[in-house]
Amino acid sequence: MNHQPVIKEQVDLTALNSLGIAARARYFVDVASVDQLRAALSWAQEHKLKRLLLGGGSNLVFTRDFDGLVIRSAFAGRQWEDVSASGATLALGAGENWHSAVLYGAGAGYRGIENLALIPGTTGAAPMQNIGAYGVELKDTLVSVTALDCVKDKVVILSSDDCQFAYRDSIFKHQLGRYIILEVRLALSRTRPLSLGYGELAEYFSDHPHPGELTPLEVAEGVMAIRRRKLPDPGQLPNAGSFFKNPVVSMTLWEELSSRHPGIVGYPGKGVVKLAAAWLIDQCGWKGYRNDRVGVHNRQALVLINHSGGSGEDILALARRIQNDVLRTYGVALEIEPRIVT
Ligand code: EPU
Fold first, then answer.
1. Domain 8-73, what fold?
2. Strand partners, 30
3. Partners of 274 in the beta sheet?
4. Cα 9 to Cα 1: distance, rounded to the nearest angstrom
5. In the structure, which protein residues have their CB atom closer than 6 angstroms to any atom of ligand 1?
6. CA 341 to each of CA 48, 49, 50: distance values in angstroms, whole numbers, following the listed order
7. In angstroms, how far is CA 179 from the centroid of its own chain?
8. Of all helices (H) and strands (E), which one includes residue 341?
9. Could you give the percent of the chain with pLDDT greater than 90?
10. What is the CATH number of domain 239-341?
11. What is the Cα–Cα distance from 241 to 121, expressed in whole angstroms?
């Protein structure tokens, strides 16, 4: 486990990013222990190379070959801690596949992450953007993140508060490159009420009535069915999930927009409203659009697709056209959600 990591040269990243963008890493290494990680970081420093941490590659847009060291996190491990009658903590290595971890937790009868089924990527990438779906966010169960702090060169434990979670946001985005996530701890419960209020999920279970109380695994299965209906499988239609964040606007702007555009979709929060970006994009006529390389998914306008050999620039050019249209039509700026690697 703790041997020197093997550094490879000129590694093709096409299959390692869910948008399927053709890019190469000048150097590439898999790390599965803190010692290996430290060795890889020192090697990069010695050779004056920039570095990129790669998880499942499901939230990245490569715009060119990466002229540095790509470090892929392969930290494994699933462990139950503090087990009691009412719940337990699940400790997960950063390299664990997120969806498998959800099935593992929900399958053992624990509640808390079942709504986050089928989100692609690794567990270590999940805190980065505080993954969320169907009324639940990672922050709702996260207890702590263990990470290598590259500034202090020491392994630290960040509490949920330290992570500064917000909608698709965290300290890991703000201090990009400082923390390398090693492990994530989640507080799961046997008794917490299931979260079934999100429109589409509520509809799904009223269309599929269930005798007795649902189990968390059954909820995960419902979420999987809904996602499969609307969201493209990256294996068939390469994509990075929602390409834009849902914009958050003031109540005043919301009132103005809804009087001018009846039908606009928004979710009120504390003094603000989160607009459905998919609706704005759809109304501008982009849903199902495609050119010979890239396009917009025909069942969810928030998802951009790499149909055939599209580059990062092709994807970004399409994103810019969509942003311009939405800005011109609604006066609302759409922010790109995945990380653009330059
Ligand atoms: N809508 C349209 N046209 C479309 C799609 C949706 O008009 O093509 C409208 C519908 O009225 C719908 C509303 O937009 O009610 C919202 O759509 P949806 O419920 O599909 O959710 P979303 O806001 O588009 C967000 C997340 C998804 C997550 C779903 C479900 C963001 C950026 N996206 O999408 O997350 O799965 O809610 O909770 O917050 C991801 O981050 O990669 C992702 C897929």
1. 3.30.43
2. 72
3. 248, 267
4. 21
5. 133-134, 200, 231, 241-242, 245-246, 265, 276, 278-279, 282, 287, 300-302, 337
6. 18, 15, 12
7. 17
8. strand 339-341
9. 97
10. 3.90.78.10
11. 11
Active site residue 190: no
Which tokens hold the place of 291? 């050119």
Pick the CATH number of 78-230 from 3.90.550.10, 1.10.3720.10, 3.20.20.370, 3.30.465.10: 3.30.465.10
The distance in angstroms from the start CA to the end CA of the chain is: 32
Report angle CA 110, 129, 41 to the nearest 5 degrees: 105
Q: What is the pLDDT of residues 238-286, one digit of tens each?
A: 999 999 999 999 999 999 999 999 999 999 998 999 999 999 999 999 9
Phi, psi of 206, rounded to the nearest 5 degrees: -80, -25
Average pLDDT, integer, range 69-96 = 97
Closest CA to 330 of 233, 240, 260: 260
pTM of model > 0.90: yes
Which mutation among 231, 242, 274, 305 tests ligand 1's pocket best, with the greatest number of atoms within 8 A of CB?
242
Instruction: Please check whether residue 83 is in contact with residue 124, taking contact to mean a CB–CB distance below 8 angstroms.
Output: no
Residue with tokens 């409203």: 273
DSSP state of 162: T
Q: Can you spell out the DSSP letters for 114-158?
A: GGGTT--SBTTTTTTTT-EETTEEGGGTEEEEEEEETTTTEEEEE
**337 counts as catalytic:** yes
Answer yes or no: is pLDDT of 1 > 60: no
The set of residues, in sequence order, having a beta carbon less than 8 Å from that of 291 and lying 6+ positions away, is 318
How many degrees, rounded to 5, is the angle at CA 82 between CA 113 and CA 215?
Answer: 35
Q: Tokens standing for 338? A: 């995945």
Sequence spans of domains, the chain: 8-73, 78-230, 239-341
Cα–ligand 1 centroid distance for 102 (angstroms): 21
Known catalytic membership, residue 206: no
Q: Which residues contact 112 (CB under 8 A, 6 or more apart)?
A: 105, 136, 140, 141, 186, 187, 188, 189, 192, 216
